[in-house]
Amino acid sequence: MIDLRASVLSRQIAHLEPILTRHGYDVRTLAEQFNVKPVEIKAFLAGTLHADRTRELTEVMKAAGMPV
Fold first, then answer.
1. Inter-residue contact 7 to 51 (CB < 8 Å)
2. φ and ψ of 41, to 5 deg
3. Lower Cβ count inside 10 Å, N or C end of the chain?
4. Dist. CA 68–CA 56, nearest whole Å
5. ∠ CA 11-14-17 to the nearest 5 degrees?
């Protein structure tokens, strides 16, 4: 039988927001660093941001050395 708690926690740990948070980046910090609105960062982290804009932010974050 699969332990539901372990499977839920494992997926949450691997999501982008917890990874960035562990590295010291929260929504406000990311918005300030990349000069975007916090709502756009929230959409990026939730996976609901437009694909082209997601690619742009991902490239900029990778260039900054972030673990995305």
1. no
2. -65, -40
3. N
4. 12
5. 110
Q: Residue 40: left (phi > 0), alpha (psi -120 to 50), or beta? A: alpha
What are the CA-CA distances from residue 62 to residues 18, 33, 38, 68 (Å)?
Answer: 17, 13, 19, 6
Tokens standing for 33?
């660093």
Global pTM value:
0.73
Q: Which two tokens stand for residue 12?
A: 């949450």
**Tens-place pLDDT, residues 1-51:** 455 554 444 445 458 888 888 888 999 999 999 999 999 999 999 889 999
Candidates 28, 64, 27; CA nearest to 45 is 27
Q: Where are the domains of the chain?
A: 4-63
